[in-house]
Fold these 2 entries.
Entry 1:
Amino acid sequence: MVAPLKVGIAGLGTVGAEVVRLIETQARVLAGRSGRGIRVVAVTARSKAKKRGVDLRGVEWAKDPLALATHPEVDCFVELMGGAGDPALAAVEAALNAGKSVVTANKALLAKHGIKLAKAAEKHGGALNFEAAVGAAIPVIKTLREGLAGTGVNRVYGILNGTCNYILTRMEQEGLSFAECLKDAQRLGYAEADPSFDVDGHDTAQKLAILASLAFGTKVAQSAVYVEGISSIAPEDLRAAADLGYRVKLLGVAVRTAKGIEQRVHPTMVPKSSSIAQVMGVTNAVTIDGEGIPPITLVGPGAGGAATASAVVADIADVARGIRANPFGRPISHLHDTTKAPMERHEGGYYIRLLARDFPGTAAAIATRLAEQKISIESIVQRHPNGGAAPATGKAAPVPVILITYATHEDAVRRALAAVQRDKVISGRPQVIRIEKN
Ligand code: HSE
């Protein structure tokens, strides 16, 4: 009979406690599928006293993460503390250097130190599994790393942050404010400890960097990702998008272009009829455009304790089965440096919302500046706030003008809008949202 896999878990927050519970309640299923038992032998967390609703009797309490990572009884070290630095980094490195397998949900750690850690795993023979780091319960790492091993990838994109999708969905459907929706996301346990990490797009950027590495065989590099968050999105953008047949989503997009790999995170208008536009609430989705096959879209719960624990336990089950894949899908020596495609050369359609000063010549000035940059307009709508009636004060109030462009370059749009601002025909800053066609 094969001895059970002995697991040590560092971090007993919502996810850690759920992992302990799943290993206990699914023990028979896991043993059946892995061909051996899985047993939690030791744990560590900041507070020993905290009530977690799981039975830890008979489980050793290690003095700190490092002690747990190198504990002679532990075969598989599960890191659920989070954070790109210590103690997570030191503990994961120590476990790998000791030849143990590591399972982690820590996207920050992988986006920053993924290559260094994968090298340690490769050198000492342990597995480094991180399915839960991207899209929680969605098996997207396995899909890219193993399922599509024989297929070239041209683009991978998705809704990778549950908090942002939850906020945008509720803002759109219920007309609620950004702040109200964020508070609910925090209450429901979707948001990071510092929610600016979610809403400013950094959480998505880390996940995208990991996906890009798996998709394109590049060394994971968060610094190669262009990032914009959702805090500038106003209810009027969501309404205008709906009127024009689009929805706004925070997308992470990694795409192979002639200029290199473009990796970008920003609010994006997607056609309402696309699969990605149907994904609402905290749900995540990833679409992979593979060579010679139609796109594959994986949809599922991307945040929360149960969804994250589901992927962590599946990773532990792989270790129990003795499966060891190269962490980033290839031996380290086969991963190449990222050639970062400059964002200024990004090509695509744009949604532009301007607050135009309502006097003769404004529309002509805007059209001229766009034409100078060879930007062609697909549609243009001017929405007078009081239905076109003359302003009561006699003074021209600014009117929202919404433009959709045909495909153009980012730097052309930036130059045109800078010129429009210099012309003083608009109030405030233009709102720009990139359009992603499926
Ligand atoms: N804060 C993340 C999200 C949780 O909202 O998707 C999982 O990374």
Entry 2:
Amino acid sequence: MEQVVVLGSLNMDQVIRVKKMPKKGETILGLGMSKVPGGKGANQAYAIGRLGGKVSMIGAVGQDESGQILKKNLDSVGVNTDCVMELSDVSTGNAVITVDQEAENSIIVLQGANAELTTAHIDAFKEMISEADVVLMQLEIPVEVVEYTAKMASEMGKTVILDPAPAVPDLPETLLKYIDVIKPNETELSVLSGMPVTNLEEAAAAAKKLLKKGVAKVIVTMGADGSLLVTEDEIRHFPSEKVKAIDTTAAGDSFIAAFVVAITGGKSCEEAIVYGNRISAVTVTRKGAQTSIPDKTEVPL
Ligand code: RIB
């Protein structure tokens, strides 16, 4: 099993369940509230650990209770948290998540300590990156840190994977050219490409635009419509597993984590996508972010 480094965010999620999402200017009554460990980076590191991968995390929390809970949760599944810094004078990242009865969510992130990561931190953690085979990142930390790390990791010969969430338009080509695999969902792909993405044909066309900017492989996750692999040589659709979803939070995180566990365990890209689909199908049948992720005994590779 190869070694993975996840560079990214750690958030404490405040999850509010609602019947329907509120409209602009509307007040609604919630059905319940819970506090769950989250953050795209931490969710992905946690899922890799839970699925049996060898993983270290680089990130930052504040010196507060949420930071301790988040680090402990990662430790509990064997994630190396030596490079998760506890910064003073800033709070741990928070996310306010609303989940409706259709299992859809909307998320607002307050970055807190995640926004304090700098390229100097990455230099300090260079050894950890040099020991990894795969470096996995998202966009809940400063984009210049992601770009700096992608260049460093790529020049060291690592496989660089980006989950471009939350999506920003016009991601610099100076970042995209270092990316081996990018995994947007339909909404993120539409933002990144500036093109509509409402079906598989549109997804393939938008993904090709990212290939032109230097990305080697695009995997589009499309919820119930499955996943689409787009490379220079192939366009291949992978249907999703049919399940009754109750909460789609961390579906993308568990997909990419499972994908990484599979490729670092010697599987092909295609086999890894199938495993990603299987893991995310289970994740959406459970509530919360890290609380919803299955382990390797429930869904073996
Ligand atoms: O992908 C889900 C995650 O997005 C949540 O856990 C939340 O913290 C935000 O980062």
